[in-house]
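Input for the complex:
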Amino acid sequence: MIIVHPLLGPRDAQEFTYLGDASLIHRPDPKADDAAENFYEYLYQRDNLAGEHRELWFHEQGDRSWLVIKRNTLTHDILSVELASDVARREGRSK
Amino acid sequence: MRHSAFQIFKQALRGHAGWKPIWRSPDPKPHYDYIIVGGGGHGLATAYYLAKKYQGVNIAVLEKNWLGCGNVARNTTIIRSNYLLDGNEPFYEHSMKLWEGLEQELNYNAMISQRGIINLFHTDPQRDASVRRGNAMCLNGADAVLLSQEELRKKCPFLNFDNARFPILGGLWQPRAGTARHDAVAWGYARGADQHGVDIIQNCEVTGFLISGGICTGVETTRGQIRAKKIGVAVAGSSSRVMAKAGMRLPIESHVLQAFVSEGLKPIIPGVITFGAGHFYVSQSNKGGLVFGGDIDGYNTYAQRGNLPVVEDVCEGGVALMPMIGRARLLRMWGGCVDMSMDGSPIIDKTHIEGLYFNGGWCYGGFKATPASGVAFAHLLATNTPHGTAKAYRFDRFSRGFLIDEKGVGAQPNLH
Ligand SMILES: Cc1cc2nc3c(=O)[nH]c(=O)nc-3n(C[C@H](O)[C@H](O)[C@H](O)COP(=O)(O)OP(=O)(O)OC[C@H]3O[C@@H](n4cnc5c(N)ncnc54)[C@H](O)[C@@H]3O)c2cc1C
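Predicted:
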């Protein structure tokens, strides 16, 4: 798989490590009343979709940026690549 | 027809024209006592033990494609019971014992070969961990032998003992482990189940569950609605996709594991050998091909094929461990979609929906579990209580904090 990095251009997927579903960007609030339940869902439960999947990749052997990649898990086609920091801010996180 | 040496002789005289298909292909009935979704090893074994123990019940196995299209016939055939943790080892040792009697039980040649497995260690801490694991195995009635470097040199002189980075100090040997002909296991269980009256229905995909008031009463399939009192799902890599149809999310990610076979070589590898410092394991098939593999690719996928970086990594591991195979040519390779759970251990449990049961999360190691998983899932389906060897394989172990994490890497499926 070739990942077209937003800053560095096309890079081999081998340079990256994989974390999983991009919803992991949104860590639950540890102070909420239902924090235990939310952390259980966050840590262990996954949609594990067949088809379009948004996921976090880390450019470990490159610029060490986190990316959000939309990829088809049936074909391995990469549909879009964004910096995770941009996605996180757009989705309401402060950093 | 019972298989025997006499039958082979008799059929040979008739030009082998007298063999019959070994299971029927019936049309689905509108109603069963039990439906098993998924005609892989686990689904077929479950149906077999259920039908054998609880005679007179109506059982159907529904398989989306053809029998044995999934991981049961894609794996590298290793059977072993060399686990460390209490939740696992008694279960896998139960499975090992069932393997030892399986061919007699099924009257089917599954080519079970107890040629042993050796897990190599390369550092002093790894040796300590091997001793601990070996003791845990022995405590649970399994067999384990710690091999010194000298003993190992006699068994496997071809290993790269003096590798500068990863010298081989010894290995943990389980002599009773080995290999089995994977698709024969599926065929044997299918034949046995069929003989006990189980309807094996191929080309029948489950597309939905009939659920009302929290009770599951049947399934929607590509061959119409089929009702049942109890439904057990054992679909391995498709677990999340199928259970999503019942509105469930699972602690599972689907990943790809690749397998490789070289051209046929003279007998050289005695049993199964695993590299303790890289991702590589190997055995040699009866035809002479080196059957080997390594780590999963590491990203979510349902594609049943992997990518080249892992091919390279596995081959590098192999050549580092046993340089002599460097010139063997790769004959074929393939991938299978495995259901990686969040702690690397399986789930055999009821769901919150009455009548719906789940068996999955087998990761890259569920072939060896096939017999014990069948027994345990059959027991759960029939009695509503977990089998004694599978008590730890519950859904709620994640929320309760009772993970069975052999590798101790946490909720990161691609690291298990
Ligand atoms: C390359 C590779 C190497 C492996 N090596 C080993 C090894 O050496 N030792 C070991 O112990 N384990 C190994 N494993 C793991 C082992 O193969 C699996 O854990 C095990 O086979 C999974 O259980 P199963 O046999 O029931 O799965 P499968 O054979 O995959 O059965 C699941 C079935 O469900 C069917 N299905 C899916 N969706 C539906 C639906 N909607 N309706 C109806 N049917 C459906 C599928 O078509 C499939 O036939 C390996 C796996 C792979 C991929």
